[in-house]
């Protein structure tokens, strides 16, 4: 090889080392850039030159500049991140509900429950001159219990709505990310010439990688790189992005408007996305399973509390009877059987008594039994029928108003009436002589008949007629620990403890799962960073190596220059 050939070989080497140093410099500059993947200059021997029987190398050349990455590890990391995001959201949902219950505070629901039944117990043997105040306190504690249950329900509903809003926002993010990825697919294919063997479009690929990571945090997806350099992304076997093409997604809602269930669908086909992890799956589980599950348990507890307490309470009488009374609940149609008339708590076959007084004296045949009949296993009594039976009682008028409520009133200002011995549950179902109103945690409240300073004298604590002993108060106070058939032998306290314990147990499990997935993701992230991240020490070593080669090559060129000068001067 001639001196000029050696000079050309050295020149090629200088150029290759300059490119290598530029790549190293770019890596160091982006050492703290989120999502940046380390690049590497791939050197290869230059084409040989044949000189006689000799094959002489022409130095080195840069074959390509590619990203240093492990695609399998990247897929594993994306999947782990998707699982961890979902688990974190569900764990936070449980923690939020635990804070909402506040069982470690002095103002939790169990405290309100205990104080309410304690106030009922205080009415059994009140101190002299204190009878009315303890009655008022019992009504107040009952109102505070109902307020606390409604507060928890409303806060849980707000939590559900926040998850619903986040799901809606995430759908827009999915469409934005898929559009960005599809555009980057086209740009990368154009820059790289459609061949994976050429140099990578490093900056574009890093940007796309960040977009893909954000997308797979939202929805679990399968990501496959095509030979052209573009990506195909599928969710549940249905492609979301394929190189330069993409599909829009939208939310489809079903159910009641305020409590709508929603699922993610492809706009073009209406098919639901099969999402098994990711932010949207976590939000959906937090909304539909965790929060709504808790609300259902709370509602069941409140419904049991309302109905069971009213069943016992409605057997009693206050200090005086009623002059007029309108049922709190209403039926859809007064001519329908009561178990099919839209009542939250349907009555059953049985009867109840109405006692009528005119002034201080009972009227003739004052205690009347009102019957609810059934035919076989079906209840046949209607509200119109019950009203007709009551209307036949001497001294009383009864009717059903246009709203489907039962109205009972004395025929004069001197007539009053009370209820007793209800074996049908009609009084509790229709809302006559009841303490609580509503059907669950959403609308639980205290009967307005008991509100006001003087209305507490209607508190039905007697079982011996108006102003009698407080035997009903004793029965009501013991209800908190009484085994109930509606709860399969459990008590109200045990039912509430079950709600709290289930929440605590599920929260503990969710926390452990989230922690485990977080550790697994961190491990994969460290492994990925070791492969694809920029290590300043390694880059410094590479830079020194390239520098030494550059300096040695420059020395070769200097030597050849001296030889050429000598040759010219001969």
UniProtKB/TrEMBL annotation:
Residues 96-321 form the Flagellar hook-associated protein FlgK helical domain. GO terms for cellular component: bacterial-type flagellum hook; extracellular region. SUPFAM superfamilies: Phase 1 flagellin. Keywords: Bacterial flagellum, Cell projection, Cilium, Coiled coil, Flagellum, Secreted. The keyword Coiled coil applies. It comes from the Bacteria. Its main location: other. One of its GO terms (molecular function) is structural molecule activity. Residues 7-36 form the Flagellar basal body rod protein N-terminal domain. It holds the Pfam family FlgK_D1. Residues 142-194 form a coiled coil. Residues 529-570 form the Flagellar basal-body/hook protein C-terminal domain. GO terms for biological process: bacterial-type flagellum assembly. It is found in: Bacterial flagellum; Secreted. Belongs to the flagella basal body rod proteins family. This is Flagellar hook-associated protein 1.
């Amino acid at each position: 090889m001639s001196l000029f050939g050696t000079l050309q070989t050295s020149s090629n080497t200088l150029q290759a080392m300059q490119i290598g140093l530029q790549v190293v410099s770019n890596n160091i500059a982006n050492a703290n850039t989120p999502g940046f993947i380390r690049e590497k200059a791939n050197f290869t021997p230059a084409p040989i030159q044949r000189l006689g029987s000799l094959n002489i190398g022409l130095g080195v050349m840069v074959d390509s500049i590619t990203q240093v990455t492990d695609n399998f590890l990247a897929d594993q990391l994306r999947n782990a991140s998707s699982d961890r995001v979902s688990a974190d959201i569900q764990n936070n949902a449980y923690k939020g509900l635990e804070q909402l219950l506040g069982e470690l505070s002095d103002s939790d629901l169990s405290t309100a429950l205990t104080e309410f039944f304690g106030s009922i117990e205080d009415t059994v043997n009140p101190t002299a001159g204190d009878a009315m105040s303890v009655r008022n306190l019992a009504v107040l504690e009952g109102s505070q219990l109902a307020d606390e249950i409604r507060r928890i329900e409303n806060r849980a509903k707000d939590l559900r709505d926040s998850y619903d809003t986040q799901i809606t926002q995430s759908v827009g993010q999915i469409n934005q990310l898929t559009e960005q990825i599809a555009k980057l697919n086209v740009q990368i294919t154009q820059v790289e010439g459609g061949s994976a063997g050429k140099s990578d479009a490093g900056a574009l690929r890093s940007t796309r990688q960040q977009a893909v990571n954000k997308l797979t945090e939202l929805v679990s997806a399968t990501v496959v790189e095509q030979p052209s350099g573009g990506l195909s992304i599928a969710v549940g076997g249905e492609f979301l992005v394929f190189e330069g093409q993409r599909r829009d997604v939208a939310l489809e809602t079903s159910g009641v408007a305020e409590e709508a269930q929603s699922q993610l669908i492809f706009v073009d086909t209406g098919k639901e996305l099969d999402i098994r992890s990711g932010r949207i799956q976590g939000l959906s589980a937090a909304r539909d399973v965790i929060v709504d599950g808790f609300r259902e348990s709370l509602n069941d507890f409140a419904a049991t509390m309302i109905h069971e307490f009213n069943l016992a309470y409605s057997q009693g009488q206050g200090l005086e009877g009623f002059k007029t009374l309108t049922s709190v609940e209403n039926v859809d149609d007064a001519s329908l059987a009561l178990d099919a008339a839209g009542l939250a708590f349907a009555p059953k076959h049985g009867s109840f008594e109405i006692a009528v007084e005119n002034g201080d004296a009972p009227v003739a045949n004052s205690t009347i039994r009102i019957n609810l009949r059934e035919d076989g296993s079906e209840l046949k009594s209607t509200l119109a029928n019950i009203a007709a039976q009551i209307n036949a009682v001497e001294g009383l008028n009864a009717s059903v108003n246009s709203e489907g409520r039962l109205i009972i009133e004395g025929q004069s200002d001197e007539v009053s009436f009370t209820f007793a011995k209800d074996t049908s549950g009609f009084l509790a179902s229709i809302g006559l002589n009841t303490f609580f109103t509503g059907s669950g945690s959403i609308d639980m409240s205290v009967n307005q008949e008991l509100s006001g300073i003087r209305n507490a004298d209607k508190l039905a604590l007697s079982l011996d007629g108006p102003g009698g002993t407080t035997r009903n108060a004793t029965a009501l106070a013991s209800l908190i620990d009484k085994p109930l058939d509606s709860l399969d032998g459990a008590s109200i306290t045990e039912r509430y403890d079950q709600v709290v314990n289930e929440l605590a147990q599920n929260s503990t499990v969710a926390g452990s799962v989230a922690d485990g997935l977080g550790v697994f993701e961190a491990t994969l992230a460290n492994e990925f960073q070791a492969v694809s991240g920029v290590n300043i020490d390694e880059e410094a070593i590479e830079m020194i190596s390239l520098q030494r080669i550059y300096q040695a090559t420059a020395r070769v060129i200097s030597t050849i220059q001296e030889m050429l000068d000598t040759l010219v001067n001969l």
